[in-house]
Each structure stands twice: as structure tokens, then as C-alpha cells.
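Holo prediction. Input below; ligand is 2-acetamido-2-deoxy-beta-D-glucopyranose.
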Amino acid sequence: MRKTLLGTKLLLFLMSYPLHSIEDEKNSLGNKVAVISDELSAERDRVLRISADFDNFRKRTERDRLSLMEKVQGEVVESLLPVLDNFERAKTQIKVETQGEEKINNSYQSINKQFHEILTSLGVEAVETVGTQFDPLLHEAIMREDSAEYEEGIIVQEFRKGFKLGERLLRPSMVKVSAGPGPDKSDEDPIPPADEGISPVVKEEISDFDESVDSSDSD
Ligand SMILES: *[C@@H]1O[C@H](CO)[C@@H](O)[C@H](O)[C@H]1NC(C)=O
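Structure of the complex:
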């Protein structure tokens, strides 16, 4: 039978093949598998490491990019703040009596509005002042004054707007802070003027800003 013949041939072949040689082959294949498996696992570790490195690199780059962008934006905005101050000052000097002046006022209002919109879109926020707690990290106190209306440490008046860009303070606001209700005036000498001790330069600055203070802020 054909089947038997094939079986016999295979048997003869196997018998002619030295047994130790099969054993060698098996060992050598086993070694190869072990080596390849080691290599594979080393490669896997390497890929994981590279991937983690790249991830860190990507995060660091993104962080650097954002902080550089914030820095540049901050500088740009800082350079615009004096313009903003001039706008605020101009606001107090606009007098509308004639039609021409009304046109000027309208142009002024729309440019001012646009300017504020640009600053807002850049993430610039005004520092909160009147009615909030004085914070030396955000506010610069240039005056203290007794106040029946505000508790001690609460901001009473704003002289110059301060601005933040995200967490970054671009410049502090200049404020007057309440010193509390003060001593009972009925049996005390009159309190000395609140701006005592302030340098003439600052005084000048205050009177400069005084005009531009928006009294609607102090409610
Ligand atoms: C200028 O115009 C705005 C509105 O466009 C108005 O609210 C403001 O009162 C005007 N200023 C003066 C001084 O009339």
C-alpha cells in the first residue's frame, strides 16, 4: 500500500538522521527564540522610553510656547497701558456743546470701545478695586482715609486702573483704602488731612487722576 511505503520511507529517513542533531537544532532554536524575545522586550522598553521622552518634550515645548506667548503679550499690553491712561484722561476733557464736538465724542467713544475690546480679547482684565479688600499683590495704596461707609482695609476709591493678564499683574491699581470709622470725632481733635506724608510728586499724580475717577465706581 502506498501509505505504508511512505511510512517506511519516513521511518528510514528519521533513523538515518542522527538524534543528537535534532536535539541540537531544538536547543539552538530555543536559544534563538530567547535572544529574539530579549531583543523584543528591550526594543519595547526603548520605544516606551522614547515615547515618554517625546511626550515630555511635547509638554515642555507647549509650556514654553505658552509662557513665551504670555510674556510677549504682556509686554505688548504693558506698552499700551499709557495709551489707555490717555484715553481715560481724554474722557474727562470732552465737552459736548456743538455738533462738531458731538461727532468728536462719538468717534472717541467708538475708538475707546474698540481699544477695550482688543484688550479684553487679549485676556486683559482690570483689577477690581472699590468695595473689595485691599490686596498688596494687586493694589498700591497711596492714601488711607477714615470711612463711615467702608470697613477698614476696604478700597474706597481708585485713582488709576490696574490690569492683569491671566495670573500676571501688568500693573497694580492705585487706590485709597479705608482706615475704618476712625475715632469718635465729638471729643477728639480734628483728624489731620488724609494725604499727609504723601510726596508732592504722588500728590500731583493724585490730583491728575482725581479728575478721571469715575464716581459711578464707588457705589
Ligand atoms: C459722549 O458720547 C457718549 C455716548 O456715545 C455719551 O454717553 C457721553 O455722555 C458723551 N459725552 C459727553 C461729554 O457728552
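The CA atoms of residues 7 and 28 lie 28 Å apart. That is the main takeaway for now.
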